[in-house]
């Protein structure tokens, strides 16, 4: 959690930062630290969780990160003397992070390549504010863009890109992807974790690898009684030989959860509320508070049914839509589900979005994602072949999957609650 304010006076900065802290109290997992710094820009007050700040009386650095390959990442950022140095450091590190670096005459904001860890900014006439969440900052708050560095010099904001995806060329794409999936689960998935398990391809690959690597994982599926996800997850759990925790959602719990999500989410469509509710309930029932999910797999490898429809209508131009969806993932999916998980005091972990997998997806041709076989278009073809190479049972590697909001039955529940007037605030749309 981050709450930062720049204002003309120390008392005003402190007051604003504390208001932001209070409006994000649901995501605080450990003790907080407060720092005040007088700069050439004005007074800075920063509140963050213990262990996430470096300070020396002249400078401040806040950083929230999951960079398992680099233990001294915060110190590397602290020692960077210029934007050029910072760009070079970020370009060389695979991981997920957000950070703010404050010196006497500049404030620097930065995020990882996909924007998993949230960071939002609001610029005002007499200063600025930054927070983990957008809603506490107000309707005109903006997220810091993934793969970018945003610089505030007291007059204006300037954004520079530090990230341009590398093009990856390999002779054996299937085995390369299989290797990277295994490395990602090994690196990013904690030894003890909770896996959001629907029994589809994406969660089955993660589950299979977690078991293979000796992770102590619990497997959780959420839905209404009799839903398709319960049936598929149970069958997949039997195939993999794992214990499954089924969390049935009743209407009163759904109502309570949606009321919570409406207050927190910037985007409140029926789909957003359905999916956020699922992840919030998974997190609330987790014993580990480390929630591993298959985010990004559909955008990376062509998993949505709408891509098949577009392919039939516009041919290979569907790839442009897929790349746009991937680049917008931070605002369409990750912001929502990270917030849903964090509001239950948990952390969202997304192994499919590791940089090497992300860059591999951007480098391969469309036919590796959507492949026409015997008149049918197979979605996520290369991911299915990688699953086979990893030893995922064939029934799971070939299994089609219904979207979580439908397979869980949550979409129908949310829609009915609005139609029956049990929720006062309308969603942003009824789709």
Report on this structure.
The chain has 431 residues and is an alpha+beta fold. The protein has two domains: 2-161, Aminohydrolase, N-terminal nucleophile (Ntn) domain (Glutamine Phosphoribosylpyrophosphate, subunit 1, domain 1), CATH 3.60.20.10; 173-419, 3-Layer(aba) Sandwich (Rossmann fold). Helices cover 41% and strands 22% of the residues. The protein is built from 17 helices and 19 strands. It has helices at 10-22, 73-79, 83-91, 173-188, 201-212, 228-240, 251-264, 270-285, 297-301, 305-314, 318-327, 329-342, 355-363, 381-390, 394-397, 404-407, 410-419; strands at 2-7, 32-39, 42-49, 53-55, 60-66, 96-102, 107-111, 120-124, 127-131, 142-143, 148-152, 157-161, 192-196, 216-223, 244-248, 290-292, 347-349, 371-373, 376-378. The strands form four sheets. The protein has a six-stranded antiparallel sheet, covered by helices on one side. It has a six-stranded antiparallel sheet with strand order 4-5-6-7-11-12, with helices on one face. It has a five-stranded parallel sheet with strand order 15-14-13-16-17. Strand 14 (216-223), helix 6 (228-240) and strand 15 form a beta-alpha-beta unit. Helix 4 (173-188) crosses helix 14 and helix 8 packs parallel to helix 12. The longest helix has 16 residues, at 173-188. It is globular. The mean pLDDT is 94.
């Amino acid at each position: 959690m981050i709450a930062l304010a720049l204002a003309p006076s120390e008392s005003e900065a402190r007051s604003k930062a504390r208001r932001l802290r209070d409006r994000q109290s649901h995501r605080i997992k450990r003790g907080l630290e407060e720092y005040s710094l007088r700069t050439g820009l004005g007074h800075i007050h920063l509140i963050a969780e213990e262990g996430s700040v470096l300070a020396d009386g002249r400078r401040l650095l806040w950083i929230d990160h999951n960079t398992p390959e680099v233990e001294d990442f915060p110190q590397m950022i602290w020692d960077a003397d210029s934007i050029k140095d910072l760009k070079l450091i970020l370009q060389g590190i695979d991981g997920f992070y957000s950070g703010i670096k404050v010196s006497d005459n500049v404030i620097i904001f930065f995020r990882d390549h996909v924007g998993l860890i949230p960071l939002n900014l609001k610029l005002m006439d007499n200063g600025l504010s930054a927070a983990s969440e957008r809603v506490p900052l107000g309707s005109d708050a903006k997220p810091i863009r993934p793969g970018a560095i945003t610089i505030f010099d007291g007059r204006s904001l300037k954004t520079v890109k530090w990230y341009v995806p590398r093009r990856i060329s390999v002779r054996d794409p299937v085995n390369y992807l299989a290797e990277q999936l295994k490395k990602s689960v090994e690196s990013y998935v904690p030894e003890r974790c909770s896996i959001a398990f629907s029994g589809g391809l994406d969660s089955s690959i993660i589950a299979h690898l977690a078991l293979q690597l000796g992770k102590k994982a619990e497997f959780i599926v959420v839905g209404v009684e009799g839903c398709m996800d319960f049936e598929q997850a149970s069958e997949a759990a039997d195939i993999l030989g794992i214990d499954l925790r089924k969390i049935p959602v009743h209407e009163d719990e759904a109502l309570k959860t949606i009321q919570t999500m409406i207050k927190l989410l910037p985007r409140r469509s029926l789909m957003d509320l359905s999916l956020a509710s699922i992840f919030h309930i998974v997190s609330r029932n987790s014993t580990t508070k480390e929630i591993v999910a298959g985010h990004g797999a559909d955008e990376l490898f062509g998993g949505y049914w709408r891509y098949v429809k577009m392919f039939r209508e516009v041919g290979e131009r569907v790839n442009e839509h897929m790349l746009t969806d991937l680049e917008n993932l931070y605002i369409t999916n990750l912001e929502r589900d990270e917030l849903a998980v964090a509001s239950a005091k948990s952390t969202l972990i997304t192994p499919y979005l590791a940089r090497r997998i992300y860059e591999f997806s951007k480098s391969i041709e469309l036919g590796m994602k959507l492949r026409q076989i015997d008149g049918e278009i197979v979605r996520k073809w290369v991911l299915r072949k990688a699953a086979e190479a990893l030893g995922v049972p064939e029934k799971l590697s070939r299994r089609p999957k219904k979207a979580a909001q439908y397979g869980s039955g949550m979409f129908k529940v949310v829609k009915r609650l609005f139609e029956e007037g049990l929720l006062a605030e309308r969603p942003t749309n009824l789709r």
